[in-house]
Write a structure and sequence with these properties.
This protein has about 425 residues and is of the alpha+beta class. Helices cover about 35% and strands about 15% of the residues. It has two domains: about 20-110, Alpha-Beta Plaits (2-Layer Sandwich); about 120-415, Class I glutamine amidotransferase (GATase) domain (Rossmann fold), CATH 3.40.50. Mean pLDDT is about 90; it is low at about 5-20 and about 420-424. It comes from Pontibacter qinzhouensis.
Length: about 425
């Protein structure tokens, strides 16, 4: 057979088979155990949104995988960040979509359409490594801006879609004992800054100024914002809301005593998540109220400290489904100034997403206020059973598949699924 005939046959065969070969058109980023770096995968999804391209969040499909159009720059970025991915033909991807769309499949496709603008509420004196959210945002290469009391009181939150509350004390007691352990110089600097804002904005004392901040945050959420809080920012925030107009601060922190009727004057209708709690009136107490399930009350040691995520209907309950996407339904517990929430103190309308039944405690939950959504997550650092502090920050390159940190990043992407709303 001549070379010319062989070449002709090859060309004919190529054109006959060509219609059967579909060009690769989709990238799938699996989020099950096949993924090398779950945390950086969220950063890739954010990066694609920044390029004004849609991202499909495949809820309950392979751990909550991401998919988007194939492009050479995207593949280069995936390789540079060490994120596992697959290239699929359009036909293969449509088969996945059909599988997800089946009425009996507890899966759905959530379109991510916009880049959320992220703010982290953190004191100017805070050091990098003190907060799990800033750690994971930095590791995932997701941009954010820092704000604190002055920016909140100046209504700067209107420039953002998503707000994280650093483990702050909204009652005006400087984190109580934990505040003093930071070091006298730092503690005095926090007091001076707080007092400066008290004078600037016409408040009588720090607890009133902090309540003003809490109210501005509540307005942000009610107007359509997304708020995420961990550790002591969860319970102290609700305590501040319930104590509007009531002095609950020991004289150690503001020079005068607690209102003797403070407990009876609390208004639980004003809170996001908690009710029927009893505040601690001892200024030396590390805990703030009966909300937190204290270590000596839990009866759980580190070896048995795991909480379980709930499974929700992807087609009917998209919000909690998005917030619980994970490759593991069992999450290692971790401590904090506020570690866990006693179940009886959680309002019945709150959506519980993670709990430890053996201790009758809630670890992860969310709800709505007005047009917005909030999430509370107990504990300080998902990969440090006891907080190590800023001198020994968690190295997330050692925990690229952390299920506990994934819960934080689910919340980061959540606003991307919402249509942009006008700010008023």
């Amino acid at each position: 057979m001549s070379i010319r005939l062989i070449t002709s046959l090859f060309v004919i065969a190529f054109w006959i088979l060509q219609p059967l070969v579909s060009p690769a058109a989709q990238i799938l980023v699996p989020m099950d155990v096949a993924q090398k770096d779950h945390l950086k995968a969220y950063g890739i999804a954010f990066w694609v949104l920044q390029k004004e391209q849609e991202v499909d969040w495949l809820l309950n499909y392979r751990g909550g995988s991401f998919a988007f159009r194939q492009a050479e720059p995207v593949e280069k970025e995936l390789l540079a960040r060490g994120v596992s991915y697959q290239v699929l033909s359009d036909a293969a991807y449509q088969e996945i979509i059909s599988q997800i769309a089946h009425p009996d499949a507890n899966m759905d496709v959530m379109k991510l359409e916009k880049v959320p603008k992220i703010a982290v509420y953190s004191p100017p004196m805070a050091e990098f490594g003190e907060d799990a959210v800033t750690l994971v945002l930095t590791y995932a290469e997701i941009p954010y801006e820092l704000v604190f009391d002055e920016e909140v009181l100046e209504q700067k939150l209107l420039n953002f879609d998503w707000l994280h509350l650093h483990h702050e004390d909204f009652t005006g007691q400087y984190g109580r004992s934990i505040g003093r352990r930071r070091g006298r110089d730092k503690f005095l600097a926090e007091q001076q800054e707080a007092q400066r804002l008290v004078v600037k904005y016409g408040y009588d004392k720090v607890s009133q100024m902090k309540h003003g901040v809490a109210m501005r945050i509540k307005e942000f959420v009610a107007g359509g914002g997304f708020m995420f809080a961990m550790c002591s920012a969860t319970d102290t925030y609700d305590i501040a809301l319930a104590a509007e107009g009531v002095d609950i601060v020991d004289e150690l922190y503001d020079g005068d005593g607690i209102d003797p009727d403070a407990q009876q004057k609390l208004d639980f209708t004003k809170t996001f998540a908690f009710h029927n709690f009893v505040i601690s009136q001892n200024g030396y107490d590390r805990g703030f109220s009966s909300i937190d399930n204290q270590r000596w009350e839990r009866g759980i040691d580190e070896e048995n400290d795991f909480f379980s995520l709930f499974t929700f209907s992807a087609k009917w309950d998209p919000i909690p489904t998005m917030l619980t996407q994970n490759h593991s339904k069992t999450i290692k517990g971790f401590m904090g100034q506020t570690t866990a929430f006693k179940k009886e103190q959680v309002k019945p309308e709150v959506n519980i997403m993670g709990e430890l039944q053996a201790a009758n405690e809630v670890r992860y939950m969310n709800g709505t206020v007005g047009k917005g959504t909030w999430t509370f997550y107990g504990g300080h650092d998902p990969e440090a059973y006891q907080a190590r502090g800023s001198h020994y920050p968690t190295d997330l390159s050692l925990y690229p598949n952390s299920p506990g940190y994934r819960l934080i990043l689910n919340n980061i992407l959540f606003p991307a699924a919402k249509k942009k709303k006008p700010k008023t």
